[in-house]
Amino acid sequence: MRGHCPRISAQESIFRIQFMVENSEFLPSGKPKISTMEMRGIVKRFPGVLANDQVDFDVQSGEMHALLGENGAGKSTLMRVLYGLYQPEEGEILIDGTPVKIESPHDAIEAGIGMIHQHFMLVPTLTVAENVALGLPSTRGALTDLDNVSARVLELAELYGLQVDPDAYVWQLAVGQQQRVEIIKALYRGAALLILDEPTAVLTPQEVNELFVTLRQMMVDGHALIFISHKLQEVMDICSRVTVLRDGRVVGQEPIDQVTKGTLAQMMVGRELQAKPEKEETEQENVRLALRDVWADNDLGTPGLHGVSFDLRAGEILGVAGVSGNGQRELAQAINGLRDITKGSVKAGERDLTGASPAEIIEQGVSYVPEERMEDGMIKEFTVAENLILREVNKPPFSRGGFLNFRAISRQSEDLIKQFNVKTPSKDTPVKNLSGGNIQKLLLARELSRKPKVIVAAQPTRGLDIGATEYVHQVLTDQRAEGTAILLISEDLDEILALSDRIIVIYEGEIMGEVDAGEADPEQLGLLMAGVRSQTGE
Amino acid sequence: MIAELFTTTVLVGILASGIRLATPYLYASLGETFGQKSGVLNLGVEGIMLLGAFAAFYATFVTENIWLGLLAAIIVGGIMGLAVAVINVTLKAEQGISGIGVFLFGLGMSELLFQKTLGTVETVSGFSSIYIPFLSDIPYIGEIFFQQNLLVYVAYIMVPVSWFVLGKTTLGLKIRAVGENPEAADTLGVSVNGVRYITQIFGGIMSGIAGASLSIALLNVFQQNLTSGLGFIAVALVYFGGWRPFGVLVGSLIFSMVNALQLWVQVLNIPIPADIAVMMPYVLTILALVIAVQRVRPPSALTKPYERGG
After folding, report:
1. Would you call A400 exposed, middle or buried from its count of C-beta atoms within 10 A (0-12, 13-18, 19+)?
2. Looking at residues A208-215, what average pLDDT do you find?
3. Residue range of the domain that includes B242
């Protein structure tokens, strides 16, 4: 009996929604709907790459269509074509059945298309209202009409449940709030079709939930939504249809109830995935790295780390979770001697490494997989072989008395290329010509060939495709089994949950709490990531 | 001897010259403020000032019409601003280096034209002082503020005008956005390069007028390297002023007041070595810059050419 009533009301509400969607040509913002948008046979070439190869894609009013694919599959290119940032070589775009020419973002906005970029397109030094007004004609001619803009922003905020203060400066806002500004900016311009490029990548789980509430409402209201992602669960949760791109081509287009996470992953990668790496029991006794009340400044000269303390033991992976820009970079750099420690201490075993030079820290068996692998991890103009021996170039057998031993260097690089399965034309290829995944393999090869005692891995899979991510996870799990102590700093909560033994959460340079990986749930971690301490503490 | 400086006549004199001498700095650095706010550094202000100064002087000398002189400076400044825009915005040159090129071009070209046309230092009758009714009669104040020439008054009017344009107009909003996050502006349909062309041409015109203010309003002569580094100081004043018109005004006044002081020190034969006196304003600039620049952050996209899809 109890289950009966809600089912009817749900059906009824769906009926109402359909009725509303079908019977109004206007959105709550007062702008006309786009009932269908079709892209036909889109071809986009870049020098040496066919980014989009005869891609067909469409979206309708009241649905959210997922565009799924690995990095470099052509999702962003396709959407940049739709938003007028790129011009396709072939193909056409139809809105409500009429072919349209979209030659600039301005044309796209005119056509009712809005885009929420992965990296927010906001000017931090301007206010919310100024960001919204930018580029639009003003009711006062050459003068700005920010009071009118603010009023309309508040109106839209009310209609769509996107709370935001029009007079706040964007730099003062949290990431989730900035995203709301982005959405309002698009709605203000009359967007009926909204492209969301990986909108959840920078959000905490709570913020993702809030975003999804808004997006569901927008669907009901008759907006057409395109959701670009590589997170399968999110696509399954919120989208009604899914199109999978691989190597610039459409490899599948299905209603969401016809697919599973497994089949989607297979379509994306083009093969079956390995099972998750098994975690073996390891002995976690010896403390390999101990931080006590570590403070360090960020690039602005204000404290970026506020008294961070933890122990990292042999044979464990300690995950550091947190939203981007909360001191992760400072932490990794402080441990590795690349950032001055203003207070506190870092010890590796018995040895005090506070204020030690990077060379001394390397000597103690600490390896570093930096976040910016191209900028900080590699010299991109140098060859594969040169990069592989960079850390130990001063030591035999690679050099003696200041002279390089090329035979030893090439033997080492050939061994490592084979062992780590790096795809490179030769050991003499400049690193800048390799793919992200292969560069990360090279970096791991170099760091692990030294048999480190401690690995600090910062965002080790950011920007990598599923295959390369799998590989990196396997390598880290193997290292753990061999008794290496691993500090895994990552903004990808799924990665942290999958690999870690213990998890600490960093927020504004402070450790908010520690959770055992077995008992961790995303909700609780999300609260810590947003700076909310567990109730017991206060 | 030093006491001579503190008579009322001398003090009023110093203040009046200080107000007057700030004129070229104001034009040049207000123009440069617009450019830098939009993300383009034009180090060649000095060169454009020299060409503007020459154009204004020569046109006035030939036609005996100061308005045609001023117009010549505006046209030459605008053309140079356009050239700077082509080099820095379209051709995406390294802005720190291209500016030196523009400076050297202006220095050489103005000297060449001077040698080929005039050959010797001549004088013209430039803009004469305008006595503002009633206000100019106020003791001291009148002499300091209200007995200046037209270009001086306009320079000061340009300060609130610039503040208003940057802060309260849609163009100003676009300029600020383009200098901070050009990609965001582009996605909103703002033409990044278009806005930068506008600010560069405006900056060129302002530099041209700055040159004219020297050659046909303040000094009424032209000679080689008439500006002697003034244009570079103007670029520094933009940093000192924190990219704000009223900040630029404060910087220009400090600088020109010290300059006026050292001129009077020389005039009155006060026994301070002339070289030291001449050095004072420059030493002051360096000190002021070191202290001031730490407070404000330059526009994020300053000196970075914009490329779509980068």
Report:
1. exposed
2. 91
3. 13-128+148-293
